[in-house]
């Protein structure tokens, strides 16, 4: 009974994915089921569409920038929360996690108005800054979980053996934080690459990232090019997740083990 | 090691961030889908071949692009904008486009006077908004605007939600008024409400609704209807016998503050050349704006394909541009509150 | 040590500035047709309470509630299987299948539903695309991964001993579920439902692409007014409304949770 319902539900979850993949090979712009043939043309179209190419490059820079900034900032904050003996730890924690609570449209509009008032509407810097803010809560949370399970005695041992604080951090703390850091990296990349609503408000044709470019395409065209793009996305994602599970065991990241 | 990686990334960031906006391309703002494809194939290709300047397109809906242009005022992201004749007036009142120097547009000498919409914007092609439907999904033939109110069409109609000008005008005409006295048609419009299955915000959505059969009857742009036929969906365009189709004229403009005015003028001039106009007619299945443009026999006289601009007034209904631009916000507001909202 | 907190706080401060701009604009007068604003006014908030917008707010709340409920019911079996399965293969499969859609992004997933709901692949007896039920399906599918993960995390905290004890005392499986498992998994249910409800309140791509203009939610109104009509003050007022609702919701349930604890 349980098994049947789980299978049915997983089928529901994966049905759209399957449909998209099948449609992406449809030879014509008019869709039919079963498909009338097989064609790579939409993949060719997707990969050669200049706006997608530009958007992919933009996504790369924006995500790279956001992650490069958010990881160290978030790790520092997580350590401060755990070790800093702060007076109002819950207040600081809530503040750091607050971007999660704000609706995307509110943040997007706010950043747009802020950028306009600073005369920076076209800059990629605002886009990256917004991504850092959106990604930070995930980083902080993931690293904090690891930091909480950190046994301070190991670091104290290193210090007592003569290691400088920086050396201790680099050789003892960081490696011990690895699961949290890995989860943080994973979340940060995924959230940034897929960020849509806020980016829709603050990017333009030159700076827009991939999800925004894809949205523009869906709104303007009815051919299955986006199905091809989606399939590429889905394939890449599956690979990443599968690898992550194989080498790190995602179960440990998400579930509690007894 | 990790430290070095981070520093490297940050440096790369600083270098990439003010990133290359050294665009030498001419940027043209136009509608997407088949519109952009035609412009690209017919005009942009010849333009780039002749001048060596690449052309990039910024696509989107009429009002979307107006909003973007407003944000970029004075420092435009695009050089040439294609927009509808009445929305062109909104561009003018916002100071977004510059008066056209006709001496830089030699091909405009053959431009029909009906196509010169103002000092700032000139027509490039025309079409009609009419009733388009799928005969395979609709039992009785549709021959006039008033057929839209027939009970057999309940829940089968779709129309644009971003510009209700056409249906508002037709409803007004039916009640003895026109676009200026549009309130006369309000009751008739309320009667139309149950007939409507969906509204579309974009051309793509309208095509989807037609393709899937969810809204097999639509108030649609003739060019989009022909595009559907090209894609293999058999739709029929109506030449309504009670009131004519509503004429739409798309125009070209040059943005204020563009740094590529020369290229912009060359592009516009190219689009007015007779051979280019003839190609646009064939590609879009629209009406030319330049007098003497040859229109193929199989297309001439079809809904939305007028042989000469003089026919626009004879065979179609042209909504007064100024009235339309002025009333558009009120029309949108009324339409959204009363008709779109369920 | 406290210095380590500073960069993060700077980022949050920037975010707060963006929200501050929102507050500022919400009380400025909208001048139609331009980016400039007039003086202080409460007109934007008053317009939010106009009947058509109240309708939108109600629709959004209703849709969010329906989505949360349906997602909860659909996600529970999967979450239970995920948390309780002994086989690491099954767990991996379920995790990968659950997480993958989560990681492919809103546009990809919404577009997929445009295809499925759009009669091109499956012919539906009643129209699905561009209707409220179509949007509901899309929203439920969108929320499933989150709900599954939160529920599974909660269920995995329950000591199976309780369930075994109840069974050994003669309770049938259904009874064990209703009287032991479900109540003990309540924290997971609450946190999962909270998050799904809050996110759905502000959902944008799903109603925008699947709703065809007929399904208006708070987020689509903000986008329409903010990016299309160019009414930044009006859009700001609405956006703040969405923010206030989300915060009130989270605060309210957090308090209820604290009292229950």
Textual characterization of the structure:
The complex is a heterotrimer of chains A (258), B (342) and C (261). By secondary structure, chain A is mainly alpha-helical. Chain A folds into two domains: 19-48 and 224-258, no CATH class; 53-220, MetI-like fold. Chain A is built from 13 helices and no strands. The radius of gyration of chain A is 22 Å and the shape is globular. The mean pLDDT of chain A is 85. With 342 residues, chain B is an alpha/beta fold. Chain B has two domains: 24-126 and 248-316, Periplasmic binding protein-like II (D-Maltodextrin-Binding Protein, domain 2); 127-247 and 320-340, Periplasmic binding protein-like II (D-Maltodextrin-Binding Protein, domain 2, 3-Layer(aba) Sandwich), CATH 3.40.190.10. Helices cover 40% and strands 17% of the residues of chain B. Chain B has helices at 2-16, 34-51, 62-71, 85-93, 165-174, 186-192, 203-212, 222-230, 261-271, 274-285, 310-315, 321-340; strands spanning 26-30, 55-59, 80-84, 122-133, 157-160, 196-200, 217-221, 236-237, 245-254, 287-288, 316-317. In chain B, strands 1, 2, 3, 4, 5, 6, 7, 8, 9, 10 and 11 form an eleven-stranded mixed sheet that branches. In chain B, helix 2 (34-51) packs across helix 9 (261-271), helix 2 (34-51) packs antiparallel against helix 10 and helix 4 packs across helix 12 (321-340). Chain C has 261 residues and is mostly helical. Chain C has one domain (42-260): MetI-like fold. Chain C is 76% helix and 3% strand. Chain C has twelve helices and two strands. Chain C has a two-stranded antiparallel ribbon with strand order 1-2. The mean pLDDT of chain C is 84. Classes of the chains: A mainly alpha (258), B alpha/beta (342), C mainly alpha (261). Chains in contact: A-B, A-C, B-C. The interface between A and C is large, with 89 and 87 residues.
């Amino acid at each position: 009974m349980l098994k049947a319902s789980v299978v049915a539900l997983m089928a529901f979850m994966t049905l759209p994915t399957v449909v998209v993949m099948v449609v992406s090979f449809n030879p014509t712009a008019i869709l039919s089921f079963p498909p009338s043939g097989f064609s790579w043309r939409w993949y060719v179209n997707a990969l050669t569409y200049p706006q997608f190419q530009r958007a992919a490059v933009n996504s790369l820079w924006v995500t790279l920038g956001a992650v490069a900034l958010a990881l160290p900032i978030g790790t520092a904050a997580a350590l401060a929360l755990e070790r800093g003996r702060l007076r109002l730890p819950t207040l600081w924690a809530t503040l750091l996690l607050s971007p999660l609570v704000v609706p995307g449209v509110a943040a997007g509009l706010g950043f747009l108005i802020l950028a306009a008032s600073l005369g920076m509407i076209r800059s990629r810097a605002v886009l990256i800054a917004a991504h850092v803010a959106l990604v930070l809560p995930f980083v902080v949370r993931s690293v904090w979980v690891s930091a909480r399970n950190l046994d301070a005695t190991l670091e104290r041992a290193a210090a007592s053996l003569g290691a400088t604080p920086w050396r201790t951090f680099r050789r003892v703390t960081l490696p011990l934080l690895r699961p949290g850091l890995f989860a943080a990296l994973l979340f940060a990349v995924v959230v940034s690459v897929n960020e849509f609503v806020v980016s829709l408000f603050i990017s333009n044709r030159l700076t827009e990232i991939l999800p925004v470019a894809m949205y523009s395409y869906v709104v303007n065209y009815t051919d299955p090019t986006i199905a091809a793009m989606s399939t590429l996305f889905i394939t890449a994602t599956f690979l990443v997740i599968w690898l992550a599970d194989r080498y790190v065991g995602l179960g440990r990241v998400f579930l509690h083990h007894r | 090691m990790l430290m070095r990686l981070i520093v490297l990334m940050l440096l790369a960031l600083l270098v990439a961030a003010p990133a290359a906006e050294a665009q030498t391309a001419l940027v043209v703002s136009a509608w997407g889908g088949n519109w952009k494809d035609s412009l690209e194939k017919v005009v942009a290709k010849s333009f780039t071949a002749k001048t060596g300047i690449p052309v990039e397109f910024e696509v989107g809906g009429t009002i979307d692009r107006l909003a973007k242009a407003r944000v970029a005022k004075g420092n435009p992201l695009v050089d040439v904008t294609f927009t509808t004749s009445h929305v062109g007036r909104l561009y003018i009142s916002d100071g977004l486009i510059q008066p056209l120097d006709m001496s830089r547009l030699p091909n405009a000498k053959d431009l029909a006077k009906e196509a010169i919409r103002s000092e700032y914007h000139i027509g490039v092609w025309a079409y009609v908004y009419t009733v388009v439907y799928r005969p395979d999904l609709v039992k009785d033939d549709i021959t006039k605007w008033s057929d839209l109110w027939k009970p057999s069409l309940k829940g089968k109609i779709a129309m644009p939600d971003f510009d209700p000008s056409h249906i508002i005008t037709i409803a007004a005409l039916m009640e003895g008024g026109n676009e200026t006295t549009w309130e006369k048609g309000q009751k008739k419009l309320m009667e139309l409400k149950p007939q409507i299955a969906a509204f579309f915000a974009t051309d793509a959505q309208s095509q989807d609704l037609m393709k899937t059969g969810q809204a097999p009857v639509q108030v649609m742009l003739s060019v989009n209807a022909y595009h559907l036929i090209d894609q293999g969906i058999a739709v029929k365009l109506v030449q309504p016998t009670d009131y004519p189709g509503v004429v739409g004229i798309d125009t070209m403009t040059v943005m204020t503050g563009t740094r590529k005015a020369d290229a912009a003028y060359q592009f516009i001039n190219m689009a007015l050349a007779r051979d280019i106009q003839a190609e646009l007619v064939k590609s879009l299945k629209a009406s030319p704006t330049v007098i003497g443009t040859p229109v193929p026999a199989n297309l001439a006289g079809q809904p939305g394909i007028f042989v000469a601009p003089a026919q626009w007034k004879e065979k179609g209904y042209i909504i007064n541009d100024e009235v339309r631009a002025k009333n558009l916000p009120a029309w949108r507001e009324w339409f959204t509150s009363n008709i779109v909202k369920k | 040590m406290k210095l380590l907190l500073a960069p993060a706080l700077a980022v949050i401060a920037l975010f707060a500035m963006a929200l501050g701009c929102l507050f500022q604009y919400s009380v400025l007068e909208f001048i139609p047709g331009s980016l400039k604003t007039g003086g202080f006014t409460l007109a934007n908030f008053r317009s939010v309470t106009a009947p058509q917008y109240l309708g939108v707010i109600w629709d959004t709340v209703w849709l969010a509630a329906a989505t949360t409920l349906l997602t909860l019911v659909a996600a529970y079996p999967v979450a239970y299987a995920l948390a309780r399965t002994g086989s690491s293969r099954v767990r991996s499969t379920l995790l990968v299948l659950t997480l993958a859609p989560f990681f492919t992004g809103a546009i990809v997933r919404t577009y997929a539903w445009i295809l499925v709901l759009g009669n091109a692949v499956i012919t539906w007896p009643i129209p699905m695309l561009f209707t409220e039920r179509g949007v509901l399906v899309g929203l439920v599918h969108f929320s499933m991964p989150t709900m599954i993960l939160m529920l599974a995390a909660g269920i995995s905290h329950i000591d199976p001993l309780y369930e075994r004890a109840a069974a050994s005392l003669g309770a049938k499986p259904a009874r064990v579920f209703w009287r032991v498992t479900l109540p003990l998994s309540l924290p997971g249910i609450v946190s999962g439902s909270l998050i799904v409800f809050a996110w759905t309140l502000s959902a944008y791509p799903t109603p925008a692409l699947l709703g065809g203009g007929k399904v208006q939610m708070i987020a689509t109104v903000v986008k329409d007014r903010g990016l299309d009509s160019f009414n930044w003050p009006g859009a700001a007022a609405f956006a703040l409304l969405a923010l206030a609702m989300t915060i009130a919701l989270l605060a309210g349930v957090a308090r209820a949770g604290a009292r229950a604890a």
